[in-house]
Amino acid sequence: MKNISLQPLLLGVVVHVALTITPQILLGGGYSLGSLPWQIVASTLIVSLLSYIVLHAHWTGKKLVALLVLLQFGVANFNTMIEALFFELDIPKQEALFSVATALLVAVIFSPVLVRFLGRNAETGAANPTSKPRTPLAWAGKGALVAFLYFALYFVAGMLVYPFVKDFYADKHLPGIGEMLAMQLFRGTVYLLVCLPVIRTMTTSRTNIGLTVGAALSILGGIAPLLLPNPYMPDYIRPPHMIEVGVSNFVFGFLMVRLVKQ
Fold first, then answer.
1. Residue 174 CA to its chain's centroid (Å)
2. Contact, 103 vs 77, CB < 8 A?
């Protein structure tokens, strides 16, 4: 197993923190220093996770950079932001667009930096491990199963956490079961498409890949963003949601790999 050395990890955390807070300082109307310790913790989790993936991937160079951009933006921002808008958390359109733009910018700048720090920027042309190809019908069946699995886990986790957050949502419009089903099937499909390159390129065992993908969805899609204070989700709401999303996303990621990895 390849180990993550401390120096590139620390450098990566410093760069990630700087890239994340600079747009907020320059363009976002100020930055609260009280958020900085939480940002350092979040960046440490993110950089550690991405470094592990980089060091255990077949791909190198531009292909690996593209994977990291897709994973960071797809999980940590796009799939999270569409749910925030779905639940009508009163996020102004300008702020939502700013969040999307800065998240994409951070992913695009940080990914090649991390790949270079870890010495994986050379284009080696390494081939992926061979596997039996699936037919489009088989992939459609797997995709539908994965999407329904995400909805089921999301629904169960939401029911378990609801008693702790119901006061917060009492005055908010909650979507009906049909809307909820459609949105979460879509989000489950997005998670599958974003994580397929990770599943394809990692060189470890299927169990280890499942743990890695589960950790990616848990950290990028739940723990890291919910660590940071924000004006749309009070402090007493974020911890229950962090546990809810962190656990359900981890289980989903692990089971998804068991379903699609040959």
1. 24
2. yes
For residue 57, the 8-state DSSP code is: B
Element (H, E) at 53: helix 36-55
**What tokens appear for 185 in the block?**
């099937």
Is 126 a member of any domain? no
Give me the mean pLDDT over the 201-224 stretch: 95
The amino acid that residue 130 corresponds to is T
Which bin fits 30, alpha (ψ -120 to 50), beta or left (φ > 0)?
A: left
Q: What are the φ/ψ torsions at residue 56 (nearest 5 degrees)?
A: -120, 25
Range of the domain at 247: 6-121+136-260
pLDDT value of residue 79: 84
**Residue 166 belongs to a domain:** yes
Lookup: tokens for 101: 């733009």
Q: Which residue would you say has higher pLDDT here, 2 or 56?
A: 56
Is residue 129, in this structure, part of any structural domain at all? no
Buried b (16+ CB within 10 A) or exposed e, 227-241: beebeebeeebbebb
Contacts of 35 (CB under 8 A, 6+ apart): 228, 229
Mean pLDDT score, 150-177: 87
Residue 59 lies in a domain: yes
- In angstroms, rounded to a whole number, what is the distance separating the alpha carbons of residues 230 and 70? 24
pLDDT for residue 2 is more than 90: no
CB distance 215 to 250 below 8 Å:
yes
Average pLDDT value for residue range 75-97: 75
pLDDT of residue 170: 80
Task: Let me know if 129 is exposed, middle or buried by CB neighbors in 10 A (0-12, 13-18, 19+).
Answer: exposed
> In the chain, how many domains are there?
1
Ordered alpha helix ranges (H), 136-223: 136-169, 177-201, 206-218
